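sry for the spam today, last one i promise. C-alpha cells for design, 441 residues
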C-alpha cells in the first residue's frame, strides 16, 4: 500500500511594517482613486475568502474520500492476507497429499515386484511338478512292467525263482535280502514321489494364495491412490480458485491504490491552491495597507494599462494552449501559461509592478513568485532561487529570481502565468488565467 507523502509548502509571513518605495516613475493618484482602489481590494479580499472556503470544502471532501479509500484498501488487504494463509495451508495439504501418493506408488511398485517374484516361483513350482509328474509316470510304468511280468509268470513266482535259484544257504539269505530291498525300494520310490508331488502342490497352492492376497492388496492400494489423486485434484482446484480470488483482490487493490494516488495528487493541488490564495490574501492586505498609507501617493502599476515586459530571455518552448502533458504523456492537458526555456540560473524579472509574494517548494510550481497589483497577478514558477523577499514592492523589470526546474518540471525553464485580477485557482472555471502573449510586446 502506498504511503501518503506530505509536501511541505513553506510560506513566509509578509512583513507588515512600512516599506520605503521609490515611486518617482509612477504618477500620483487622487484621493477618490485611492478610496476606489481600497474598495476594490476589499472586494477582492472577500472573493478570496469565498474561494478559500470553497477550497476548504473540497479539501474536506477529498480527505473523506482518501480515508474511505484507505479503509477499503485495509479491508482488501485483510482479504488478501487471509487468502494467502489459506493458499499456504492448501499448498501444504497438496504437498502432504503428494507425499502420500508417492508413498503409495512405492508400495504399489513393491507389491508389483512381490507379485512378479511369486509369479516366477509359481512358474518354477509348475516346472518341478512337471518333472515330478514325468518321474512318477516313469516309475509307474516301471512298476507296471514288473507287475505284468509277475502276472505273466504266476504272481510271486519271480521272487521264488530268485530265491530257489540260490546255490547255498548263504546265497539264499543274500537273495532274500535283495528281494526285500527291491520291494522296499520300489515302495519307497513311489512314496517319495507321491510325497514330493503333494509338497509341490501344497507350495503351489500357498504361493498362489499369497499371490492372490498381494494382488488384492495391490488393488486396494491402487484404489487408495485413485482416492488420493482425487483429493489432490480437489486441493489443486481449490488452490486455483484461491489464486483467482487473490488476483481479483490484487486488481481491486491496484485500482484503489491508483485512486488513492489521484486523490493525493488532487489534495496536493488543493493544498497548492490554498497556499497560493493565502499568499495572495496577504499580498492584497499589503497592497491595501500601502494604498491606505498617506505617506505615499500610489498609482496603478505599469501592468494596469495592459503592457508587460518579457520576464526572461530564452526560447518560447510552450504556449498558452492545449497540449500533451510533458510529464505524464497524457493528451488534452491545458497549459495555463507560457514556458521560456533557458539554462539554470537565467535571471527572471518582474513583468509588472506590484507586491511580490514568494512561495517556496510546491508539488505543482516548485519555487515560485507572485507579483500582485490591482489589475493583474503574474506568476513565475520552477525557480532555482529567489532575489526578493515576501511583501517586497517591486517595479517592472526588477530582478526577482533565477530560472530552474523545481516542482512538476521536465527541464530548466520559466513557467509564466497571467491572471486578470487575483489568482483564484488552477483550472477554469476556477481560474481567471489569460494568455500572457496578449500582454507581451
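last one done:
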Amino acid at each position: 500500500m502506498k504511503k501518503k507523502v506530505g509536501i511541505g509548502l513553506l510560506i513566509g509571513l509578509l512583513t507588515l511594517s512600512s516599506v520605503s518605495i521609490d515611486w518617482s516613475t509612477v504618477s500620483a493618484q487622487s484621493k477618490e482613486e485611492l478610496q476606489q482602489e481600497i474598495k476594490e481590494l476589499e472586494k477582492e479580499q472577500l472573493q478570496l475568502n469565498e474561494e478559500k472556503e470553497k477550497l476548504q470544502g473540497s479539501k474536506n471532501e477529498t480527505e473523506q474520500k482518501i480515508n474511505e479509500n484507505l479503509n477499503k484498501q485495509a479491508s482488501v488487504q485483510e482479504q488478501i492476507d487471509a487468502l494467502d494463509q489459506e493458499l499456504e495451508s492448501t499448498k501444504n495439504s497438496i504437498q502432504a497429499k503428494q507425499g502420500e501418493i508417492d508413498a503409495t506408488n512405492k508400495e504399489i511398485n513393491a507389491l508389483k515386484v512381490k507379485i512378479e517374484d511369486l509369479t516366477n516361483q509359481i512358474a518354477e513350482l509348475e516346472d518341478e511338478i512337471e518333472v515330478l509328474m514325468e518321474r512318477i509316470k516313469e516309475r509307474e510304468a516301471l512298476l507296471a512292467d514288473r507287475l505284468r511280468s509277475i502276472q505273466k509268470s504266476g504272481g510271486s513266482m519271480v521272487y521264488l525263482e530268485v530265491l530257489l535259484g540260490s546255490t547255498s544257504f548263504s546265497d539264499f539269505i543274500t537273495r532274500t535280502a535283495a528281494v526285500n530291498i527291491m520291494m522296499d525300494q520300489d515302495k519307497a520310490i513311489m512314496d517319495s514321489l507321491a510325497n514330493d508331488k503333494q509338497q509341490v502342490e501344497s507350495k503351489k497352492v500357498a504361493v498362489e494364495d499369497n499371490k492372490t492376497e498381494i494382488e488384492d492388496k495391490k488393488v486396494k492400494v491402487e484404489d487408495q491412490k485413485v482416492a488420493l489423486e482425487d483429493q489432490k485434484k480437489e486441493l489443486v482446484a481449490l488452490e486455483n480458485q484461491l489464486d483467482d480470488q487473490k488476483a481479483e483482490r490484487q486488481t481491486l487493490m491496484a485500482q484503489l491504490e491508483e485512486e488513492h494516488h489521484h486523490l493525493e495528487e488532487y489534495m496536493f493541488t488543493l493544498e497548492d491552491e490554498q497556499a497560493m490564495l493565502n499568499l495572495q490574501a496577504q499580498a492584497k492586505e499589503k497592497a491595501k495597507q500601502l494604498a491606505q498609507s498617506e505617506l505615499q501617493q500610489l498609482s496603478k502599476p505599469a501592468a494596469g494599462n495592459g503592457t508587460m515586459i518579457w520576464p526572461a530571455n530564452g526560447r518560447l518552448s510552450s504556449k498558452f494552449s492545449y497540449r500533451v502533458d510533458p510529464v505524464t504523456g497524457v493528451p488534452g492537458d491545458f497549459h495555463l501559461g507560457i514556458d521560456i526555456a533557458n539554462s539554470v540560473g537565467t535571471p527572471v524579472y518582474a513583468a509588472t509592478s506590484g507586491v511580490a509574494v514568494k512561495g517556496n517548494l510546491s508539488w505543482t510550481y516548485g519555487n515560485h513568485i507572485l507579483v500582485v497589483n490591482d489589475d493583474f497577478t503574474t506568476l513565475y514558477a520552477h525557480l532555482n532561487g529567489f532575489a526578493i523577499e515576501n511583501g517586497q514592492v517591486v517595479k517592472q523589470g526588477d530582478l526577482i529570481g533565477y530560472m530552474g526546474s523545481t516542482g512538476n518540471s521536465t527541464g530548466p525553464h520559466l513557467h509564466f502565468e497571467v491572471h486578470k485580477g487575483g489568482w483564484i485557482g488552477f483550472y477554469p472555471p476556477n481560474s481567471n488565467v489569460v494568455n500572457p502573449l496578449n500582454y507581451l510586446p
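The helical segments are 31-152, 157-164, 169-292. ok im logging off now
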